[in-house]
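Session log. Operator J.P. requested a structure for one protein chain; no other inputs attached. Running the standard single-chain path with token output.
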Amino acid sequence: MKPAFAFGHGLSFTNFKYSKLTVAQDAITVTVTNAGKVAGREVAQLYLKYPAAAGEPPLVLRGFEVLKLEPGAQGVARFKLEKKDVSIWDVTVMMMLALCYSHCCSHCCSC
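Structure written below.
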């Protein structure tokens, strides 16, 4: 029998909702709620989107947190950002440059 999806494809037996996205200078938090009827694990992921002129990939994974939640339970995913997480190496000046960026947590926005 051929499996319909590869292992780790991201399928779950429950549903999760994201809310209360908070952005601070050095951290981003988001509340994750198990909106389903069975316990489950969700991998909250933080992606940064740099300006097109930076020449970076469209989305860069900068953090993830696994939350195991019972039905109806809430958890908070916390992503600590350091200066290096929001910087790129500029080969023309041979130094790290901090950039403006936009953020995206998996399932809470359409990047």
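Operator note: The chain has one domain: 16-105.
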